[in-house]
Write a structure and sequence with these properties.
Blueprint lengths: L2 E4 L1 H7 L7 H16 L5 E5 H8 L3 H11 L3 E3 L3 H12 L8 H12 L4 E3 L9 H13 L6 E3 L1 H4 L7
Parallel strand pairs: 1-2, 1-4, 2-3, 4-5
Length: 160
């Protein structure tokens, strides 16, 4: 059983209607397949930041997102997570304009979670930033989480 931090974009892909954009729709289907067939074989976590982000926007959609994560373990931030998020921003591993993305990574790393599951390719699952994220986590005394998407994680955490 692996430990997985579920970032908000994954929750967004699980709820609501399938979009007409074929790439996004494919990601939604993959996410739903992972959720239905693989997720519960692992220990899942969200943070208060995820809850806050899921609470935003349309009230009906927010309620659906919150209902989906209701039974998932919640982990909080800490002084260590705050310091690591600041270090990620200072090192330009995450742009200064995206402190919440830095905090998602910092919460997962400071809580020792193995995976961070996301569809955020701009600032989290970004191949050009990944090395800097990992380097900054290690320089601050934390093992970085393996940042991946649901399709990358399928088959890895279910014993296949």
């Amino acid at each position: 059983m692996e430990t997985i931090y579920i970032e908000t974009t994954v929750i967004g892909h699980l709820t609501g209607r399938i979009l007409t954009d074929t790439l996004v729709a494919a990601r939604q289907h993959v996410t739903r397949d992972w959720w239905e067939n693989h997720a519960r074989m692992n220990r899942l976590f969200v943070s208060y930041l995820v809850i806050d982000e899921c609470s935003a926007g349309n009230a009906v959609a927010a309620e659906e997102r919150l209902r989906l994560i209701n039974d998932i373990e919640v982990i909080g931030g800490s002084d260590e997570a705050d310091a690591l998020a600041d270090a990620l921003l200072q090192a330009n591993a995450i742009p200064d304009s995206e402190p919440r993305d830095a905090m998602h990574i910092a919460i997962a790393a400071s809580n020792g979670l193995k995976y961070l599951l996301t569809w955020n390719f701009k600032h989290i699952a970004n191949a050009t930033l990944r090395w800097k994220i990992e380097e900054t986590c290690r320089a601050n005394g934390f093992d970085p989480p393996i940042i991946c998407t649901p399709d990358e994680l399928m088959g890895i955490t279910d014993g296949n």
